[in-house]
Amino acid sequence: MHARRAAVTALLVAATATACSSNGADDKAQSKPSKAATSKAPATTTPAPGPLKFGSNWRWSDKDDDGKPISGTTTVLSYTQPAKDVDLTKEASDFAHPVWSVLEVKVCIAAKSSPVTVSQGPWALGFPDDTRLDSPNISGSGVPKPEYASNGATVNAGSCLRGKITYSVERGTRPNRIVYGSAGRDTVEWAVPKA
Predict the structure, then answer these.
(1) Of 71, 124, 149, 162, which has the most beta carbons under 10 Å away?
(2) Fold annotation for 4-190
Protein backbone atom coordinates (compact mmCIF):
# COMPACT_ATOMS: atom_id res chain seq x y z
CA MET A 1 0.00 0.00 0.00
CA HIS A 2 2.42 2.67 1.15
CA ALA A 3 5.69 3.01 3.00
CA ARG A 4 7.75 5.77 4.57
CA ARG A 5 10.93 6.59 2.75
CA ALA A 6 13.76 9.05 3.11
CA ALA A 7 13.17 12.55 1.86
CA VAL A 8 16.47 12.44 0.03
CA THR A 9 15.05 9.86 -2.34
CA ALA A 10 13.17 10.78 -5.47
CA LEU A 11 10.14 13.07 -5.26
CA LEU A 12 6.68 11.64 -5.50
CA VAL A 13 5.86 10.00 -8.79
CA ALA A 14 2.24 10.66 -9.60
CA ALA A 15 0.58 7.72 -11.33
CA THR A 16 -2.05 10.06 -12.63
CA ALA A 17 -1.90 13.69 -13.60
CA THR A 18 -1.16 16.28 -10.99
CA ALA A 19 -2.41 19.76 -10.32
CA CYS A 20 -2.84 22.24 -7.48
CA SER A 21 -5.61 23.57 -5.21
CA SER A 22 -6.93 26.62 -3.34
CA ASN A 23 -9.44 27.82 -0.83
CA GLY A 24 -9.76 31.30 -2.35
CA ALA A 25 -7.77 33.02 0.44
CA ASP A 26 -5.00 35.47 -0.34
CA ASP A 27 -1.72 33.81 -0.99
CA LYS A 28 1.51 35.09 0.50
CA ALA A 29 3.91 32.75 -1.30
CA GLN A 30 4.36 31.48 -4.80
CA SER A 31 6.22 28.40 -5.90
CA LYS A 32 6.93 26.24 -8.90
CA PRO A 33 3.76 24.66 -10.31
CA SER A 34 2.81 21.05 -10.28
CA LYS A 35 2.69 19.07 -13.45
CA ALA A 36 -0.68 18.81 -15.19
CA ALA A 37 -1.94 15.64 -16.84
CA THR A 38 -0.24 16.32 -20.14
CA SER A 39 2.22 19.02 -19.14
CA LYS A 40 5.81 18.71 -20.34
CA ALA A 41 6.72 22.37 -20.73
CA PRO A 42 8.93 23.87 -18.01
CA ALA A 43 7.16 26.27 -15.68
CA THR A 44 8.51 29.50 -14.31
CA THR A 45 7.64 30.53 -10.76
CA THR A 46 9.44 31.39 -7.55
CA PRO A 47 9.92 28.66 -4.94
CA ALA A 48 8.11 29.13 -1.62
CA PRO A 49 10.38 30.66 1.08
CA GLY A 50 9.41 27.95 3.60
CA PRO A 51 6.46 25.92 4.78
CA LEU A 52 3.13 27.68 4.26
CA LYS A 53 0.39 27.89 6.86
CA PHE A 54 -2.78 25.84 6.40
CA GLY A 55 -5.21 27.84 4.30
CA SER A 56 -2.42 29.66 2.42
CA ASN A 57 -2.69 29.28 -1.33
CA TRP A 58 0.18 28.24 -3.56
CA ARG A 59 -0.21 29.88 -6.97
CA TRP A 60 1.11 28.03 -10.00
CA SER A 61 1.09 28.21 -13.78
CA ASP A 62 2.35 25.96 -16.55
CA LYS A 63 1.50 24.74 -20.06
CA ASP A 64 0.00 21.43 -21.12
CA ASP A 65 1.31 19.28 -24.01
CA ASP A 66 -0.64 21.37 -26.51
CA GLY A 67 0.98 24.55 -25.22
CA LYS A 68 -2.27 25.74 -23.63
CA PRO A 69 -1.87 27.65 -20.36
CA ILE A 70 -2.89 26.00 -17.11
CA SER A 71 -2.92 27.80 -13.77
CA GLY A 72 -4.58 27.86 -10.39
CA THR A 73 -3.97 27.54 -6.68
CA THR A 74 -3.47 24.70 -4.21
CA THR A 75 -3.97 24.68 -0.46
CA VAL A 76 -4.10 22.43 2.57
CA LEU A 77 -7.25 23.03 4.58
CA SER A 78 -6.73 20.71 7.56
CA TYR A 79 -4.98 17.67 9.02
CA THR A 80 -6.65 15.52 11.69
CA GLN A 81 -4.87 12.83 13.73
CA PRO A 82 -6.38 10.68 15.08
CA ALA A 83 -9.32 10.75 12.69
CA LYS A 84 -12.34 9.32 14.46
CA ASP A 85 -14.50 9.14 11.32
CA VAL A 86 -12.31 6.50 9.60
CA ASP A 87 -13.85 3.01 9.70
CA LEU A 88 -11.06 0.79 8.39
CA THR A 89 -9.51 -2.31 9.90
CA LYS A 90 -5.95 -2.54 11.20
CA GLU A 91 -5.21 -4.83 8.24
CA ALA A 92 -5.79 -1.92 5.84
CA SER A 93 -2.60 -0.31 7.19
CA ASP A 94 1.07 -1.14 6.68
CA PHE A 95 1.83 -0.30 10.32
CA ALA A 96 1.81 -2.59 13.37
CA HIS A 97 0.02 0.00 15.52
CA PRO A 98 -1.82 2.27 13.07
CA VAL A 99 -3.46 5.58 13.81
CA TRP A 100 -5.74 6.93 11.07
CA SER A 101 -5.40 10.53 9.90
CA VAL A 102 -7.17 12.69 7.33
CA LEU A 103 -5.72 15.45 5.16
CA GLU A 104 -8.16 17.88 3.50
CA VAL A 105 -6.96 19.74 0.39
CA LYS A 106 -8.42 21.92 -2.35
CA VAL A 107 -7.51 22.83 -5.93
CA CYS A 108 -8.94 25.74 -7.93
CA ILE A 109 -8.30 26.22 -11.62
CA ALA A 110 -8.05 29.78 -12.97
CA ALA A 111 -10.81 31.11 -15.24
CA LYS A 112 -8.47 31.38 -18.26
CA SER A 113 -6.81 27.98 -17.73
CA SER A 114 -7.32 24.81 -19.69
CA PRO A 115 -8.85 21.95 -17.63
CA VAL A 116 -6.44 20.15 -15.28
CA THR A 117 -6.48 16.58 -13.95
CA VAL A 118 -5.79 16.18 -10.21
CA SER A 119 -5.20 13.17 -7.95
CA GLN A 120 -3.98 12.11 -4.51
CA GLY A 121 -0.65 11.01 -6.02
CA PRO A 122 1.45 14.14 -5.38
CA TRP A 123 0.43 14.47 -1.70
CA ALA A 124 2.64 13.14 1.11
CA LEU A 125 3.12 13.53 4.85
CA GLY A 126 6.60 14.69 5.89
CA PHE A 127 8.03 13.69 9.28
CA PRO A 128 10.65 15.25 11.61
CA ASP A 129 13.10 12.40 10.82
CA ASP A 130 13.16 13.48 7.13
CA THR A 131 10.98 10.61 5.91
CA ARG A 132 7.77 10.82 3.89
CA LEU A 133 4.60 8.82 3.68
CA ASP A 134 3.12 8.83 0.18
CA SER A 135 -0.60 9.08 -0.41
CA PRO A 136 -2.00 5.56 -0.10
CA ASN A 137 -4.92 6.17 -2.51
CA ILE A 138 -7.39 4.64 -0.08
CA SER A 139 -10.97 5.22 -1.18
CA GLY A 140 -14.44 3.78 -0.87
CA SER A 141 -16.29 2.50 2.16
CA GLY A 142 -14.87 3.44 5.56
CA VAL A 143 -13.08 6.67 4.61
CA PRO A 144 -14.36 10.19 5.32
CA LYS A 145 -16.23 12.01 2.57
CA PRO A 146 -15.84 13.90 0.36
CA GLU A 147 -12.83 11.97 -0.88
CA TYR A 148 -10.17 13.72 -2.93
CA ALA A 149 -9.78 12.08 -6.36
CA SER A 150 -7.79 8.87 -5.98
CA ASN A 151 -7.68 7.91 -9.67
CA GLY A 152 -7.70 11.39 -11.19
CA ALA A 153 -10.45 13.92 -11.78
CA THR A 154 -10.66 16.73 -14.32
CA VAL A 155 -11.25 20.21 -12.93
CA ASN A 156 -12.51 22.77 -15.47
CA ALA A 157 -11.50 26.41 -15.71
CA GLY A 158 -13.07 28.51 -12.98
CA SER A 159 -13.88 25.42 -10.87
CA CYS A 160 -12.51 23.91 -7.66
CA LEU A 161 -12.21 20.44 -6.18
CA ARG A 162 -11.97 19.85 -2.43
CA GLY A 163 -11.62 16.53 -0.68
CA LYS A 164 -10.06 14.33 2.00
CA ILE A 165 -7.13 11.92 1.78
CA THR A 166 -6.94 9.13 4.39
CA TYR A 167 -3.56 7.98 5.75
CA SER A 168 -2.44 5.62 8.47
CA VAL A 169 0.64 6.45 10.53
CA GLU A 170 2.44 4.48 13.23
CA ARG A 171 1.19 5.26 16.73
CA GLY A 172 3.52 7.76 18.41
CA THR A 173 4.47 9.53 15.16
CA ARG A 174 3.03 12.72 13.69
CA PRO A 175 4.00 14.59 10.50
CA ASN A 176 5.39 18.09 10.81
CA ARG A 177 4.65 19.08 7.20
CA ILE A 178 2.40 18.30 4.25
CA VAL A 179 4.36 17.90 1.01
CA TYR A 180 2.99 18.45 -2.51
CA GLY A 181 5.22 17.57 -5.44
CA SER A 182 5.81 15.27 -8.36
CA ALA A 183 8.83 13.98 -10.26
CA GLY A 184 10.70 16.72 -12.07
CA ARG A 185 9.13 19.56 -10.06
CA ASP A 186 10.00 21.51 -6.95
CA THR A 187 7.84 20.72 -3.95
CA VAL A 188 5.75 23.00 -1.79
CA GLU A 189 5.12 22.35 1.90
CA TRP A 190 2.62 23.38 4.57
CA ALA A 191 3.60 23.25 8.26
CA VAL A 192 1.42 20.92 10.35
CA PRO A 193 0.34 22.58 13.59
CA LYS A 194 1.37 20.79 16.78
CA ALA A 195 -1.31 18.57 18.32
Answers:
(1) 124
(2) Immunoglobulin-like (2.60.40)
